[in-house]
Amino acid sequence: MATIVLLTCTGLGLGALYFLVASGLSLIFGLMDVLNFAHGALLSIGAYGAWWAAGGNLPGAGRSGFGFVLAVAFGTAVGTLAAVLLELAVIRPLYTRPREQILATVGVGLATPALLSAIWGSDARTFPGPAALSGTFPLLGAAIPVNRLVLVAAALVVLVALRLFLGRTRHGLVVRAGVEDRAMVTALGIDVRKAFTLVFAIGGAAAALAGALGGLYFGSVDPGQGTSLLIFAFVVVVMGGMGSITGAAVAAVGVGLVQQFANYYTAAGLGDLAVVVMLAALLLIRPRGLTGRLA
């Protein structure tokens, strides 16, 4: 029983991490029709930003509880700024040229890990997490890592915030209307470009937050971390339905749990294969994913 509880909680934590990555990816694709292969680069930037700040380079940041929050906020802010710059300099000139758009984001996604390796080396760097989040707590006989709760809580906050943004805010409604009929929204005097930049910033913030908390989950950061997590983020987005935030959340939970249980009860590494099999089976039954809509 204790083993099942532990695997379930760790699977939920991993699923929460996948959702944080996939939510921004799904939001950008669903609202802007941009398949952003540089999303993993934003995650890596957020991870290294938080690691740099938590290492004592940012005044006030460190291994205390408040210092860790400050480090995560710094990493998220740096990733958000990088997302805005990416949208303005690379994506915006290519909105009507999707083929070049894909090539450009792939190039950024490959160049960023190389740049991080050149600055800090290719070896993994230990993430200085706070002592309060390094322990465990008992649950039904299992010792559950505290940091898994942080990931789950962050994922729930992001899920609620994105749903409120899309359905209850003026900017969310403007963006959705701009996707349907950009010319009409522009004729009404609304600058759709600014709204799209906002969406890209929110998506980048979610990716950077995933990177910052991913350092806590894995205990380290490395230049290729964003690329590896991006693969599973794409799986989650496809399974949930392209552009569906709710579908991405459900799919992320399923992927995290399947991966954890398969890795434990079978040979190590077969969890990834189990996820691929689950993806193939779902697409055979529901080609558009679990929901296939933005909600």
From TrEMBL:
Principal location: membrane
Cellular localization per UniProt: Cell membrane
UniProt keyword annotation of Transmembrane present: yes
Membrane-spanning segments: 12-30, 37-54, 66-90, 102-122, 142-166, 195-218, 230-257, 264-285
An example Gene Ontology CC term for this record: plasma membrane
Record flagged with keyword Iron-sulfur: no
GO molecular function, one term: transmembrane transporter activity
Superkingdom of the source species: Bacteria
Annotated membrane topology: Multi-pass membrane protein
Keyword terms, alphabetized: Amino-acid transport, Cell membrane, Membrane, Transmembrane, Transmembrane helix, Transport
GO biological process, one term: amino acid transport
Pfam families xrefs: BPD_transp_2
Assigned protein family: Belongs to the binding-protein-dependent transport system permease family. LivHM subfamily.
Protein name: Branched-chain amino acid ABC transporter permease
Originating organism: Actinacidiphila oryziradicis
